[in-house]
Amino acid sequence: MTVKEQIEALRREIEQHNYYYYVLSQPIISDYEYDMKMKQLQELEEKYPEYFDPLSPTQRVGSDIATGFEQAYHTYPMLSLGNTYTEGEVKDFYERVRKALNEPFELVCELKYDGVSISITYENGEIQRAVTRGDGEKGDVVTANIKTIRSIPLRLKGNYPDKFEIRGEVLMPWAVFEALNKEREEQEEPLFANPRNAAAGTIKLQNSALVASRKLDAYFYYVLGEQLPFATHYENLQAARTWGFKISENMKLCRTLDEVWEFIHFWEKERKNLPVPIDGIVLKVNSLEQQRKLGTTAKSPRWAIAYKYQAEKALTKLLSVTYQVGRTGAVTPVANLEPVQLSGTTVKRASLHNADIIESLDLHIGDMVYVEKGGEIIPKITGVEKSARLQNGKGEKVVFIKNCPECNAPLIRYPGEAAHYCPNENGCPPQIKGKIEHFVSRKAMNIEGLGEETINLLYENGLLKNVADIYTLKISDLVTLERLGLKSASNLINSIEKSKKVPFERVLFALGIRFVGETVAKKLAYAFKSIEALQQAEYEDLIQVEEIGDKIAQSVRQYFSDPKNLEIINRLKAVGVQMAINEDASKRKGNELEGKSIVISGTFKYGDHEKYKNLIEAHGGKNVGSVSSKTSFILAGENMGPEKLKKAQTLGIKLMDEENFLSLINEEIPSSASE
Ligand code: IVH
Question: Which residue in 340, 424, 438, 531 could disulfide with 428, CB within 3.0 to 4.6 Å?
């Protein structure tokens, strides 16, 4: 087998496994075996760039080159569906169709997936372009992002038409949504309200590597084209399944309205067991000929309709409101309710979000309130049944507390923010414990064996009052506590010792400075290189750094203005925690060129070879002298050497110009050339 054949065989094999895993949900090899095949393919492709293929499964990992979206017109406009909420309206639809057709007809019942609609064009079995709905006439071209979704075939199988368009819904599965929000909560990033918003936000990201990490899925429900294989919608969808698309098994051909009801009622209950969100069902006339006869209105087809399920609601009594204080001091009001059944679970508590929401509900203790689950995980109160007050009278008005329920400090509200905060960072128990939990977490100092319970125990026993105390813990302290045996105590001490090697950027993240998440911590660490330099940085110096704006700059300044924080930093430094970037990485500005070998050739407008060599190294790449099959690309200026050019052409190695190179590594393009 030649290398080319080997590469192609691997690509086919991996795509077949993608199909088993992502479309059929029935993998036939282990994740490990899959990863090994992927790795082998990546290595071969790196070694033989002449066999590059944009449709290779390795290309599904995305790239972090920001693209900006072009717009494109849809070949067939993307209409929406008429929505109905009552069975009467469904009956009206059925009767309208029956009268207009005046002949027997079938309806296809489908699930109405709750995500973002997408239209994808395929030509000769290859994905061409994916466009969002936009305004229905034209949308954003998001092909690179869509290619990261592994259940979407890049190349088709079987007997597909030469050219067609397929429409479907890009979804975020519940499990992915919940994990994503959990992670965002830990990073203090705003949460997504529901999986649809999360999917929509993801598909519009400018960074397809980030899209790939979000693990979206897609179901398809509509094929369009001039040469479709069958005369019915149902059969065309079954055919599309054989081409490799994920088509729901949960659809039904119905001849009577009774059969339609059965489908609707079945899924009303069953939908909570699906791995992906749905918000209703869709009815479609099956025959394409009959669809044409019925036609469309300006906005939606007359041959289809959506029936939307009501968000499940329950009515119950508000018993009290309590307040929780998080690691950042944010105070969240929680409603305690008389237990009530809602979508199969007992609800006792609901989030009230913030003071404004309480005010707009005009909430009083003892009120009968509506709770809904809808697309959100945490149930929320959506309304008050005011008529119940006539019978029961009005209880005490719910007024947001003025002082911290944990430490009694007066709460503050930052301008433009909905939340109230307890400012007593270093004296409020849940904030102290929360800060320690964050400090030891995996992405921060990664100290194993120091979970919530142990932290609590150590805190209660006065052994842990801030993050610096972690480094004073001794085995003898630990074993005297109830829960810790000698073995776990010594493991914990080892893990603490190991954390002294954690690089500065993660230490900075671990400190838990407000708004300084993982990425911001990295940017600050690379820009200032040491904690002293960061501490001395003025507001103006801080906002010079890419992505650092007013809010973060102020927060950093405030952190370093507190003597208690400075004391903690000094103690951490004294025990040997990394408080500066290490030498090797100190020239680093980014990792965009990690693992890349780059040849520089020609003359440049904005700098010389020396400058570009330094830039390549600062961004993690290697500058090499001569073109070979291992070269990732050539940074090509004017009048590039003819030998190099020829060699690049035979090996199929890409040339990149100065502007594209600078934007790849996020360096500014100087406004005037230094010729
Ligand atoms: S058919 C002309 N089928 O609902 C008919 N749409 O309000 C085109 N949707 O934009 C749509 N599941 O995003 C169809 N099984 C399904 C669907 C579905 C979800 C979405 C789609 C569409 C919206 C219509």
Answer: 424
Hey, which CATH number is domain 429-574, 3.40.50.970, 1.10.150.20, 3.40.50.410, 2.40.30.110? 1.10.150.20
User: Measured at the alpha carbon of residue 155, what is the angle toward residues 154 and 157, in degrees to the nearest 5?
Assistant: 135
113 Cβ inside 6 Å of ligand 1: yes
The residues spanned by each domain of the chain are 3-59, 71-308, 313-392, 429-574, 588-664
E strands, 385-504, where?
420-421
Residue 583: CB atoms within 10 A of its CB come to 7
* Minimum-distance ligand 1 atom for the alpha carbon of 79: 2
Its CATH class, for the domain covering 3-59, is mainly alpha
Q: Please tell me which residue in 37, 91, 112, 630 is annotated as part of the active site.
A: 112
Our answer on whether the CB atom of 276 is closer than 6 Å to any ligand 1 atom is no
Answer whether 81 contacts ligand 1 (Cβ < 6 A): yes
For a mutational test of ligand 1's pocket, the pick from 112, 116, 217, 219, i.e. the residue with the most ligand atoms closer than 8 A to its C-beta, is: 112
Is the shortest distance between the CB of 282 and ligand 1 below 6 Å?
yes
For the segment 454-478, what is each residue's pLDDT rounded down to a tens digit? 899 899 999 999 999 999 999 888 8
pLDDT tens string 11-63:
999 999 888 878 876 777 777 778 789 889 999 998 898 898 989 998 886 65
Torsion sign across C-alpha atoms 300, 301, 302, 307: negative
With b for 16 or more beta-carbon neighbours within 10 A and e for fewer, the 164-192 pattern comes to bbbbbbbbbbbebbeebbeeeebebeeeb
pLDDT at 675: 34
pTM of the model: 0.60
Tokens at residue 522, please? Answer: 């990295």
Whether 112 is catalytic is yes
| CATH 3.30.470.30 is right for the domain spanning 71-308 | yes
Topology (CATH) of 313-392 = OB fold (Dihydrolipoamide Acetyltransferase, E2P) (2.40.50)
pLDDT of residue 65: 52
Contact 368, 349 (CB under 8 A): no
Ligand 1 centre to CA of 138 (Å) is 17
Topology of the domain covering 588-664:
Rossmann fold (3.40.50)
Q: Is the CB of 130 under 6 A from ligand 1?
A: no
Angle of helix 31-47 relative to helix 3-18, nearest 10 degrees, comes to 150
For the Cβ of 304 lying below 6 angstroms from any atom of ligand 1, the answer is yes
Name the residue at shortest CA distance from atom 22 of ligand 1: 80
Ligand 1 centroid to residue 115 C-alpha, Å: 10
